[in-house]
Write a structure and sequence with these properties.
Largest sheet: 7 strands, mixed
Strand order of the largest sheet: 5-6-2-1-3-4-7
Shape: globular
InterPro entries: Acyl-CoA_DH_C (IPR013107), Acyl-CoA_Oxase/DH_mid-dom_sf (IPR046373), AcylCo_DH-like_C (IPR036250), AcylCoA_DH/ox_N (IPR013786), AcylCoA_DH/ox_N_sf (IPR037069), AcylCoA_DH/oxidase_NM_dom_sf (IPR009100)
Keywords: Oxidoreductase
Radius of gyration: 21 Å
Protein name: Acyl-CoA dehydrogenase family protein
Pfam families: Acyl-CoA_dh_2, Acyl-CoA_dh_N
Distance between the termini: 34 Å
Length: about 350
């Protein structure tokens, strides 16, 4: 699948959506359902393994990795829904589900459920979906509501600098009925499974960070490949033989490896807690989110270093380095890996009062 994703990446970027052959390959491989329960045909992956899978897909192409990340992360909602709702939405092996977690919808009570109206932004992969998830404020509190794709209107608003093929358009529904079986709030659901015990918002942040790391790894790969064949203008030796290039590549590799190690170590520790059913304090949750934000920031910085190493060759549309540069920086702008999380961790570490409800 790696070769297919790489071959289709330029077309996907041009069309601003992952191409049909790649979508079909992702669905067939189970990449859109990696976190759904095995009882529903999902991958039921542990989060450390999920990080590796997302990184690998993002290394092939950032937008494709993001699409797999957001759909497979949303597939985790199957753990929280009532059994009949989970089977309805996730029972088909061809189901693809994504959406927007922000509670931009408003719901009113209806017989057996809610009538939902709203317009959401950042709807990555929604045009590819069979079902769409959106955060909504209901009379019973916040909920994720699951809507059939046929009920959703997508507005073509995603014309962004990077991650262009994620199709992260705005979308809306008006007065759509959602039965109770398709409405859930993970934070209040008690489910006896490791993934369900892991903070829902935290593993979304893990996915964003993993995409960034995969993109940065691709950038380093491309810079190294270019260095062995490129002789820069006004020099007589290939780039690979020049000390400055050797040092920059080594620094990029070290920083990327360090950020990845920090993220994976924290994820493994918190996953072990989830498996054991052990309580996790605010300090540990803050440190996990610190690792996510650090990984995203380092990924963007390392990608810039690789792009700079490529020199003039990196600026052309056919160079993966320029796409990596744009993709990594857009990924790092996501609110879940915001630099504000550095402040949150610092406050928790120093015993200063701070809101930790979204950790």
């Amino acid at each position: 699948m790696d070769e297919l994703i790489r071959a289709e990446a330029a077309t996907a970027e041009r069309d601003r959506v992952v191409t049909p052959p790649v979508v079909a390959a992702l669905v067939e491989a189970g990449a859109t359902r990696m976190l759904a329960p095995a009882s529903l045909g999902g991958g039921e992956m542990d989060l450390p393994s999920w990080l590796v899978a997302v990184e690998d897909l993002a290394r092939a192409d950032g937008s494709t990795g993001w699409t797999a990340m957001t759909t497979s992360a949303t597939s985790a909602l199957a753990w929280y829904l009532p059994a009949d709702g989970a089977a309805e939405v996730f029972g088909s092996p061809a189901s693809v589900v994504a959406g927007t977690a922000a509670p931009a919808g408003r719901a009113v009570a209806a017989d057996g459920g809610y009538r939902v109206t709203g317009r959401w932004g950042w709807g990555s992969a929604v045009p590819l979906c069979t079902w769409v998830a959106g955060g909504a404020v209901t009379p019973d509190g916040p909920r994720f509501v699951l809507l059939p794709r046929s009920a959703v209107t997508v507005h073509d608003t995603w014309d962004a600098a990077g991650l262009r093929a994620t199709a992260s358009h705005e979308w809306e529904v008006s007065g759509e009925f959602v039965p109770f079986r398709r409405a859930v709030w993970p934070a209040s659901a008690e489910v006896d499974a490791p993934l369900a015990r892991f903070p829902f918002i935290a593993f979304l942040a893990l996915g964003v960070a993993a995409v960034g790391l995969g993109i940065a790894a691709r950038a380093v790969e491309e810079a190294a490949a270019l260095a062995v064949v490129k002789t820069p203008q006004y020099t007589s030796t290939v780039l690979a033989a020049q000390a400055s290039a050797q040092i920059d590549l080594a620094i990029a590799e070290a920083r990327l490896s360090a950020a990845r190690a920090f993220l994976h170590a924290e994820t493994a520790a918190r996953w072990a807690d989830a498996v054991a059913g052990a309580p996790v304090g605010a300090g540990d949750r803050a440190r996990l989110r610190l690792a996510c934000s650090h990984a995203a920031a380092e990924a963007a910085s390392v990608t810039r270093l690789a792009f700079d190493l490529g020199g003039g060759s990196a600026v052309f549309a056919d160079s993966p380095l320029q796409r990596c540069l744009r993709d990594a920086h857009v990924a790092a702008q996501h609110g879940l890996v915001s630099r504000r999380l550095f402040e949150t961790y610092g406050a928790v570490r120093l015993g200063v009062a701070v809101d930790t409800s979204r950790l």
